[in-house]
Amino acid sequence: MSLVTVEDISVGYGADTVLAHVSLAIEPGEIVTIVGPNGSGKTTLLRSLIGAVRPASGRIIRKPNLRIGYVPQKLHIDPTLPITVERFLRLPGGIRRGASTRALSRAGVPDLSGRQMSGLSGGQMQRVLLARALISDPELLLLDEATQGLDQPGSAAFYRQIEEVRKDTGCAVLMISHELHVVMSASDRVICLNGHVCCEGTPDIVSAAPEYRALFGSGTGGALALYRHDHDHAHDETCDHDHDHPQRTKSEAAE
Known about the structure:
Blueprint lengths: L3 E10 L2 E11 L4 E5 L6 H8 L7 E6 L5 E4 L13 H6 L6 H10 L15 H13 L5 E5 L7 H18 L2 E5 L3 H4 L5 E5 L3 E5 L1 H6 L1 H7 L4 H7 L10 E2 L16
Helix pairs in contact: 3-4
């Protein structure tokens, strides 16, 4: 069965509708990327999936006892707080040292255990947050623009690590990002969101879709070719051709 099925959900904040009639499903083992302009509802969708936001209509069906790992955009640590990576990973308690060591290895930073959290670089911090998300052996890993602030090589390395995590654990991955040239190439399937699902399919299909090009142009085509890799499986294109739906701005939808 699908790990998560979203059936015709709409979500709003006050009088503003952020997501309208969104439907999708996440299958075991696949890497799915959600792309869209600012204010398109990407973070709201992720927050709905983890239960932090309740849809106004529609429903979200999760596999029973689904284990979810979540990697946020960033985490602010008080620089005066003396806490090591090992201690951070074992909060709030009950986490064995072996589990944290294994998670750091899967995140590609096995030697950070004794480092102070306040002394980590941006890239190291995101790897530690990834390790924290992996401790529970998630079936579904959610990443909310987890490489924000990293340079392009750092972002590319992070997403290559995500592919290794998927290969090693078999978990599904759902991530959102503005880094189209890197993220789309690391995906089995891409969902283009702008308050509703504009189009969906493999990276090649979505990058050629009129709905996608209307939002992002065609400038990512060369980059997609540069970073493309073979996908484990293909998905058919499904595009919504309702062009009457207005685009939302930052002021209309809080990401």
